Amino acid sequence: VDLHRGIRQGAAEVIYGAGKTPEQMTGIIGAMLEHEVKTILITRLSAEKADVIQKTYPQMDYRKDAKIGTIGQFPAADGLGKIVVATAGTSDIPVAGSSTDSRSPRQ
């Protein structure tokens, strides 16, 4: 786990959920929280894996359509810049949702 990515890049490491077991992700989340990572984002997270993770971390917010899980507070929008998310059809909804939810999942 790259625990210094937030210092170097301005954003903490993102957990790619598709290639990991719930147990692996639970371990990674634990390490991140132990090292005071305040914001955790898990992408490509299935509902089944989210259910397992939420048994250990019930504070995880799971967004089924976007297939992402989040723990912690995300920074408030500062009003600078614009984000456009364009899709080509309904099959793009999970990706579009992941993009918009990762921008500010709790607004």
Topology:
Elements: H1 5-9, E1 14-16, H2 22-34, E2 39-43, H3 47-56, E3 61-63, E4 68-72, H4 93-103
Parallel strand pairs: 1-2
Antiparallel strand pairs: 2-4, 3-4
Average the pLDDT over all residues and give the rounded result: 84
Helix content: 25-40%
Q: Compute the number of strand runs.
A: 4
- Order of strands in the sheet with most strands: 1-2-4-3
Instruction: Give me the number of helical elements.
Output: 4
Largest sheet report: 4 strands, mixed
Model regions low in confidence, pLDDT < 50 over at least 5 residues: none
Distance between the termini: 28 Å
Taken as a percent bin, the fraction of beta residues is: 5-15%
Structural class comes to alpha+beta
One letter per element, helices H and strands E, the order comes to HEHEHEEH
